[in-house]
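Example record used in the benchmark description.
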Amino acid sequence: MTASYDYDLFVIGAGSGGVRAARFAAQDGKRVGICEDLRIGGTCVLRGCIPKKLLVYAAHYAHDYHDAVAYGWDKVSPEHDWGKLIAAKNVETDRLNGIYINLLNGPGVKTYDGRGVITGPNTVQIGDQTVTAEHILIATGGWPFVPDIPGKEYAITSNEALDLAERPQRIVIVGGGYIAVEFAGVFAGLGSDLTMVVRSKLLRGFDDDVAKELGEALEREGTTMAYGRTITAIEKTASGLVATMDDGSTMEADAFMYATGRFPNSRNMGLEDVGVALGKGGEVLVDAYSQTNIPSIWAIGDVTDRMNLTPVALYEAMCLLRTIFKGEPTAPTYDNIATAVFSSPPIGTVGLTEEQARAKYGKVDIYKSRFRPLKHTLTKRDHFSFMKMIVDPATDKVIGCHMLGDDSAEIAQGLGIALTCGATKAQFDATIGIHPTAAEEFVTMRTKEAD
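Model output (structure tokens):
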């Protein structure tokens, strides 16, 4: 490394990907600095995956109390304390923030408090401080998006939803992506009257059958689904908030939460000034090795808008370090990455959707299974699990597995291993199932869907 620079690597953004890159580079003896303009830990730890799933767990207890009666427990009428939940969540995120700080301090990463602005190919300014680095890594993640409509200041996003002082009794969630459906499960489960405003379809990019099953499940649980609608304005009234829809109708609620997407957090960083190429959505454009058009500047994670998942950012960070410091150019690959949606019920998925598979392979074999889980044969709750397997008939390889139902995320992780290893349908069929479980359905499906 060149001693004329302050650092071998300087990272902008101390979220999951940035901390991983900084930490392991420093452990390998490199001089590393990192800056963060919010709190160390980033979206996943502080404003996303972890706190959101804690709220998802809280919402599930509403069902558990109800279901327990069918198993002989005395009926109880518990009341939920939203403030107590948020306080407990904050204690945990504070603990994780401390852990991430220690992950950087341990190997000697120098931390800077403030937003990093790139002023040259090897120069970053943080407030009134300027540092130089042989390599600069952009790992600033994404940020929730609210469309520019009158009254947008009255809307909240996932950021604010995690810190509301009180749970809104009436809430409208705008959007149909994974963040929207996850928060739908939280608020509906904890007792809010919920409406979802979905412009087109639920869970665009996921398998259509799974998205359809989830939409029906949400409606069975009491969620009002308003498809094909958009909000044109929000105004504050004496009784709450009122939204005007594109058809002229109105909708009243205590809170309107937008989950209509996230934009790459690349603004106000000087990227345009130094010539870093950006996409039309503000994403930092990189090559297969996470390098921008300026050789000394790199980017990983959600700010590149490739595959926006925390484990993927961690993976990209490790590939990057091998490329930069070990002389082993390593391009991340994104095949067969298992993902989950912590909706109610949850979704686990790996591989291609049916639409993607037909576009790539033409003819495919489809297997499906829909059933009431054993647990609910006693509760009688209108709750179903759905599984789908997609097979390339030319090779017999399983190229997609999708599930909606309890434990689907845990099951999908194992399926991800199988698909990564190139497992065939015959190998799935030869695997003995664990009985009685939902997972055994993936090794017992024998009837192909008709074309």
